[in-house]
Design a protein that fits this description.
single chain; 213 residues; Rossmann fold; 6 helices; 20% strand; Alpha/beta hydrolase; Hydrolase_4; hydrolase activity; AB_hydrolase_fold; hydrolase
Length: 213
């Protein structure tokens, strides 16, 4: 793992690169939970997802949102955070072009980060550079405007989440005919259920054909 400070729209952005293989199978851009409630790129759910994707052979890029760690700026309820994630992606593509050009891009997020990633995904579609897949954990549907997502999006939620009720996620997913993987007994932060979260992602990637991504 290596940490860097890169230029952002309102100042420096702190990022971490994990799994810097000579030739990864793809790039995962990973977003953390709400910065005003202690969310950082070192959150346990985020680092569980990071380790999972590294084991699957991906380069994982994490970044701190505005006002967290060494990232400049103030919280902007998702607007600036979306811009910053796109800036991180642009930096990786421009500065590591020879290694990562043309590789599949996965957008992954936890809680507030999942909400932001749906907006990043929409922006990338508008730029004609869509992500290959989204992974949304503890999707914050009851708190922010989480946008519709592609049919192959992996949505994982805790049965006993009292921060974002499961019913809210089901109500968001239903009009999209979008499956939701429910972890029995799990709360919002998946206490005691992180191995299960990891296994769900592994199973979702079993037999994935990279050319189809």
């Amino acid at each position: 793992m290596s940490k860097q400070i890169i230029p952002g729209i309102v100042g420096p952005i702190e990022i971490a690169l994990d799994g810097e293989q000579a030739q990864p199978r793809g790039v995962v851009l990973l977003a953390h939970p709400h910065p005003l409630f202690g969310g950082t790129m070192d959150n346990k759910v985020v680092t569980t997802l990071m380790r999972t994707f590294v084991q699957l052979g991906y380069l994982v890029v994490r970044s701190n949102f505005r006002g967290v760690g060494q990232t400049a700026g103030e919280h902007t309820a998702g607007v600036g955070e979306t811009d910053d994630l796109l800036a991180v992606l642009d930096f990786i593509e421009q500065h590591e072009q020879r290694r990562y050009a043309g590789l599949p891009l996965i957008l992954a997020g936890f809680s507030f980060g999942s909400f932001v990633q749906t907006h990043v995904a929409q922006r990338l579609v508008a730029l004609n550079r869509p992500a290959s897949r989204l992974v949304l954990v503890g999707t914050a549907t009851s708190r922010w405007e989480v946008l519709p997502v592609p049919a192959d999006t992996l949505v994982i939620h805790g049965e006993q989440d009292d921060t974002v009720p499961l019913q809210s996620v089901l109500d968001w997913a239903r009009p999209q005919s979008l499956p939701v993987v429910v972890v029995p007994g799990a709360d919002h932060f998946f206490h005691g259920k992180l191995p299960t979260l990891k296994q769900i992602v592994f199973q979702a990637w079993a037999g994935v054909n990279e050319s189809a991504e």
